[in-house]
Amino acid sequence: MEVLITLITLAALTLGLLILARKYRVSLSQNKAAFFWTLVLVALTIGSLYLIYTPPGTRMGPEQPIPFSHQLHVGVKSIQCQFCHPYVDSSIHPGLPPVEKCLYCHNYIIAKHPQILKEHRYFNTKTPTPWVKANYLAEHVVFNHQRHIKKEIECQQCHGAIETMDRVKGRYFYMEFCIQCHREKKANLGCWLACHS
Ligand code: HEC
Ligand code: HEC
Ligand code: HEC
Ligand code: HEC
User: Fold this and answer.
1) Ligand 1 center from residue 163 Cα (angstroms)
2) Model confidence over 34-66: pLDDT tens digits?
3) Could you state, in order of their start, the residue ranges of all structural domains in the chain?
4) Do residues 145 and 89 touch, judged by C-beta distance below 8 A?
5) Can you say how many angstroms the Cα of residue 188 is from the centroid of all Cα atoms in its chain?
6) Is there a smaller number of Cβ atoms within 10 Å at the N or the C end of the chain?
7) d(CA 88, CA 79)
8) pLDDT digits (tens, 9 = 90+) for 104-126
9) CA 67–ligand 2 middle distance (angstroms)
């Protein structure tokens, strides 16, 4: 969608410029400075459009309410993904761990750490930890982890080296990414039947 909007905007801009250029062909050659600044303005517009429509996932991972580190928990402490994301192979929603799960360990491990005290506050007030979502998928796309994990596709193939990340850097999943692998693995390419609702 974002790509489409950007393309349409670009097309409209180009068309407008072409019309203007035709109309003022003579005066253009006499007003090189004005022409130059117009170009600069157009470049700036395109630049800011690009920034606006760059999906959040392509920049640094979002700051989280608690600086939870996959690098520490998965990379160093070797906790299994499924311990914290238990529904990943049985439901459409892999789930983010509830506070109870953190406290299962942290009632004993570094129990007085300020960040863990914060977890206790969430627990005592029955507030779910307001984790910030890192991954994005267009709303009309049906994605189901189950089918993929049953085929033994590694989490890392889609999520990158999570075990090295202090702050999960999500991504925006474009269709091209899905299609590429489906083509390689000879999976369903009937997009409208398979992926789009
Ligand atoms: C000790 C618990 C724990 C373990 C183990 C764990 N995670 Fe997570 N995971 C979390 C928490 C908490 C979040 C939400 C905060 C964040 O994004 O860092 C999260 C977020 C994520 C996200 C981003 C979700 C989104 O879109 O916002 C992905 C992807 C993910 N984990 C994949 C994995 C994978 C793959 C593994 C194993 C290699 C793994 N996790 C192991 C706790 C865990
Ligand atoms: C299976 C046990 C286990 C679970 C579950 C677990 N942790 Fe940890 N966590 C650890 C260990 C071990 C350490 C390292 C403690 C140390 O530094 O001595 C740690 C360290 C931390 C730290 C301190 C990092 C630092 O910079 O010092 C934070 C914050 C933290 N965990 C948050 C969480 C959150 C939030 C969850 C739930 C999503 C969670 N942990 C789930 C075992 C666990
Ligand atoms: C074939 C690609 C693929 C594989 C393999 C994969 N994921 Fe995902 N994952 C995605 C996509 C796409 C999303 C975004 C879905 C959405 O936003 O609805 C996602 C989202 C998530 C989320 C965030 C869910 C939420 O509710 O915000 C977690 C957690 C997660 N994945 C964990 C895992 C774990 C753990 C594994 C391995 C056991 C794994 N994923 C394997 C593609 C994949
Ligand atoms: C790394 C490879 C890989 C990636 C990336 C991937 N897929 Fe798949 N996908 C597969 C395989 C292999 C199957 C076949 C699973 C089976 O046969 O049960 C599959 C099956 C599916 C199915 C079930 C199709 C059916 O036959 O009903 C859907 C829906 C689907 N994928 C959607 C997606 C979407 C959406 C994305 C992108 C966000 C994606 N996939 C990314 C490998 C991948």
Assistant:
1) 9
2) 778 888 988 998 888 877 766 544 456 788 899
3) 2-54, 70-96+131-194
4) yes
5) 24
6) C
7) 15
8) 999 999 999 999 999 999 999 98
9) 10
